[in-house]
From TrEMBL:
Organism: Mycena maculata
Annotated protein name in UniProt: mRNA-capping enzyme subunit beta
GO BP annotations listed: 7-methylguanosine mRNA capping
Region (Disordered): 1-30
Regions of compositional bias (Polar residues) in chain numbering: 15-28
Database matches in CDD domains: CYTH-like_mRNA_RTPase (cd07470)
Function: First step of mRNA capping. Converts the 5'-triphosphate end of a nascent mRNA chain into a diphosphate end.
Catalytic activity: a 5'-end triphospho-ribonucleoside in mRNA + H2O = a 5'-end diphospho-ribonucleoside in mRNA + phosphate + H(+)
Length: 302
């Protein structure tokens, strides 16, 4: 069977027992399909294809970490400013550049508190022996991002210098380059989401003054290969402008090296099946976690 039709190992058939009675009212065990396997989820495969294509076609002259993240927010029509309304009933991937929209990741204070409570409860529950998954980790970070223009005035991306708020020490200095976005509209939910692939290129500390700053108070929850970040951002457009308070929620694949290693083995006929399908399994878990975050959004997003 071609690779695109082959499910991960745990998706194999649950077969009925030969000769099992079919006259009763109880449903007997069913096979996953007439082929005994579960067809690949096209939704997850589309996201996996997008991420994989964007990774392997990234600019070869730029060295840096590849970042894959999903942000929770709202898709808004640019003309009206209202939340997008499409004639679909369920979660849908929007074809890039087909609709004039913008993605807004800022949530209300109420939503921030809601997610903080839910994630803290999950963190506590995950420490119990009866929890069905691995325990969550937790870190509270306070950093300040300062943004500087690059030498090229036409560059949209700015240089970001991140400092520990308490010590003032530089944590990182880099230029974040957006490689691609995929928007997901969720009509049954209070929020939508966006998958982004970025390249984080390390650079030297810039000379001159910062154009603006973002102070981040971040609650970071880690689970297996993922990091869920709930962040309160105090943004200042200029030294004399009033600060704006923002709240954001995102999930990120935690290990760029693992992401690239699994992407390199995807579909390789010479690789074992587990290595060949590892990238799709990583994206599947990433998508499932993003979906759970979106489905736990309460009403009154913004």
């Amino acid at each position: 069977m071609p690779r695109s039709e082959s499910p991960p190992p745990h998706k194999r058939a649950r077969q009925s027992t030969p000769g099992e009675s079919r006259n009763g009212t109880s449903l007997p065990p069913l096979s996953l399909s007439i082929l005994g396997v579960e067809p690949l989820d096209e939704f997850i495969k589309e996201i996996a294809d997008f991420v994989h294509y964007t990774i392997v076609n990234r600019p070869p002259d730029l060295q840096g970490n590849v970042e894959v993240e999903a942000k929770v927010g709202l898709l808004r029509d640019r003309a009206s400013g209202q939340r997008l309304m499409l004639p679909v009933l369920v979660e849908t991937i929007i074809a890039p550049d087909r609709i004039d929209l913008r993605f807004e990741s800022n949530m209300s204070v109420h939503q921030h508190k809601h997610f903080n409570t839910r994630l803290n409860e999950l963190k506590m529950s995950s420490a119990q022996p009866s929890f069905p998954s691995t325990p969550l980790g937790y870190t509270h970070l306070r950093v300040v991002d300062s943004f500087y223009p690059t030498d090229n005035p036409h560059d949209k991306e700015k240089i970001r210098v991140t400092r520990d708020e308490k010590t003032g020490n530089v944590v990182e200095c880099m230029r974040k380059i957006r490689l691609g976005d995929l928007n997901i509209y969720s009509p049954k939910r209070a929020a939508d989401w966006r998958v982004s692939v970025n390249l984080e290129v390390p650079v030297s500390h810039p000379i001159g003054s910062a154009t603006h700053t973002r102070r981040k108070d971040r609650l970071s929850y880690t689970h297996e290969e993922f990091s869920i970040d709930l962040t309160q951002v105090t943004a200042s457009a200029s030294p004399n402008s009033p600060a704006e308070l923002l709240h954001e929620l995102e999930i990120e694949i935690a290990r760029p090296a693992l992401l690239l290693a699994t992407a390199a083995k995807r579909g390789d006929p010479n690789a074992p099946e587990l290595e060949r399908s590892a990238f799709d399994e990583l994206i599947r878990a990433f998508v499932n976690n993003a979906r759970i975050l979106v489905r736990n959004a309460s009403e009154g997003w913004q």
